[in-house]
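Much of what follows relies on a compact textual record of a protein's fold. A record is reproduced here so that you can trace the correspondence yourselves:
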Amino acid sequence: MDNTIFAQCIARIKVLETKMLDRAKIETLLEAKDFNEAKRILQDSVYGDYINMPSYEDGLKKALEDFYREMVKICPVVEVVDIFRTKYDAHNIKTLVKNRFLQKNLDSILIDAGTIEVSKLKDIFKDDNLRDLYEVYRDAVFKAIDEYNSNKNPQDIDIIIDAAMFKRQLEIAKETRISFIKDYIQLLIDVYNIRTFIRAKEQNRERDFLNKVLIKGGKVDLDVFINNFIEDIENFSNKVFHTEHFKWLKEGLEEYIKTKDLGRIEKMADNYLISVLKNSKFISFGAEPVVAYIYAKENEIKVLRIILTGKKNGVGADTIRERLRDIYV
């Protein structure tokens, strides 16, 4: 692929990056005395109109949806954007499958940022017309329904659809023929498996459960997780010493052992992914700056949600700060 086809898109991204929230703005938000002041600080940002919606949560969801609509328009290889959009397909499919069993109206948590429009997905499930889904999702839905009917465990739905999501991402990566995209998806799979491994150990799950939830396709061999499942968690980072995950995982486990807060692992993992992508934004041609910007924008919205939720609930600045991921700009 001729990487120069991304030139115009990257030029547009450089302009959009100037409108992102910098560290100074984030700090100002953190130090805001309350929720209303935080909203006032954001009035002159690209989020001004969104947070003035009746619900700031709905506003941030709308900001995310609008962002992806824009990226689909400006990116010359839509599959690069679809790599990210697939997780919203997975989220929506999980929600609609659960809706079928729980008989609750979960429409409010659907996110119209996937590769399949929410309205189309709802029609697919309403009419049981699953042939209109990608094969990997269609097979996963049938499997998830069978598993739930057998075990009545909603977590099985999440596990099966998540596996299908990563499989679909690898399919898209293959379609693009861009090596960076494949490497990035493998990185996401590794991080997912590491997080899953640690959660499974701390929840005293059986090894059979781990076999069930680990995702194939990453660079870290699944045997690394299976063979070390009964070992002390403190030593696990040494098992991936030869990989790029050693440093962040070692630091994350040290924090977790002190605090027993699994959120510290999640934060370290997110910060690691941001650090990997930060260098990509300096590449002049190619998909790398596009991927880096999309990840950064998602992270920015996540940071805003954490801050605004904290302010809404009267949480102190230092406590909110501990929960924040790194930022891109």
